[in-house]
Amino acid sequence: MKLKSGRYRHYKGRDYQVIDVARHSETGEWMVVYRTLYGEYDLWVRPLSMFAEEVTVEGKTRPRFTFISEDV
After folding, report:
1. pLDDT exceeds cutoff 70 at 1
2. Is the C-alpha dihedral spanning 11, 12, 14, 19 positive or negative?
3. Which residue from 71, 68, 62, 28 is spatially nearest to 48, judged by alpha carbons?
4. When comparing pLDDT for 72 and 32, which is higher?
5. pTM
6. How many CB atoms lie within 10 A of CB 18?
7. Rounded distance, CA 12 to CA 55, Å?
8. What is the pLDDT of residues 3-62, one digit of tens each?
9. Which residues fall within 8 angstroms of residue 2, CB to CB, at 6 or more apart?
10. Cβ(54)–Cβ(36) under 8 Å?
11. 48 by DSSP, 3-state: which?
């Protein structure tokens, strides 16, 4: 699965910059490399399957992260 680089919004409202997708060296699992666009601008990784999944909040299903733009 390919993921576009750029700005994404988490379902809780904060924005993140997706840098790229990388493969875990031991498991081969695809991981999303992304940065917070608030606070210390920390760098994080999350399994692609989790990044791209839908979550149910208050009975409504929505994407965990939604693509906003290619610009950060």
Report:
1. no
2. negative
3. 28
4. 32
5. 0.91
6. 19
7. 11
8. 999 999 999 999 999 999 999 999 999 999 999 999 999 999 999 999 999 999 999 999
9. 21
10. no
11. helix
